[in-house]
Design goal:
Length: about 180
């Protein structure tokens, strides 16, 4: 009788181990992974919600800035847009002390209701002049975006530098609405 009792205990312990192992493999581990994944998703959603709330707080400022950009923006007339930007770039160069070597406009069709006016600029000046020029470009109400730029040193004292830049302006085509 002692042997049967021992066998029963071993069978019960074995069954308990099998149940625990199966429960861990098929219930606890997948459940833990699901909870971890959901926790990460909740954290991401909270971050997105925070970003959305910040945008809502700044809504009026963003709308005002967009209205100013549209107001000071350009009609779909190519020469008008080019002339405005060329005059502004010349003013910024004079104001900052930058010497312009070349300034080439180019129209880029993007399709749909918009197109880009791209400018490639090269010039020379001090680091202060270059930074002032970039400051003027960025703070102007014209809808311009600095896409890329480069600076190279001309002399050993780092007083004179060559400067290249590419910036664009989004031109919205007139729509009949």
């Amino acid at each position: 009788m002692d042997l049967k009792k021992r066998e029963r205990i071993l069978i019960l312990v074995t069954l308990a181990c099998i149940v625990l192992l199966t429960g861990d493999r098929f219930i606890l581990t997948p459940l833990g992974k699901t909870w971890k994944k959901r926790s990460e998703e909740i954290a991401l959603l909270k971050k997105d919600l925070g970003n959305g709330e910040i945008l809502l707080e700044r809504k009026e400022d963003i709308r005002d800035r967009w209205a100013k950009m549209k107001e000071s923006g350009f009609s779909s007339d190519s020469s008008d847009a080019e002339d405005k930007i060329l005059m502004r770039v010349h003013d910024w160069a004079v104001k900052s002390g930058l010497t312009l070597n070349s300034l080439r406009p180019r129209w880029v069709e993007t399709g749909g209701n918009e197109r880009n006016l791209e400018f490639r600029l090269s010039g020379a000046g001090s680091l202060e002049a270059i930074s002032r020029f970039l400051f003027e470009l960025e703070r102007d109400a014209l809808p311009l975006s600095l896409e890329d730029f480069g600076i190279s040193v001309r002399d050993k004292q780092n007083r004179s530098m060559d400067f290249t830049a590419r910036f664009t302006s989004l031109i919205l085509k007139e729509t009949d609405s």
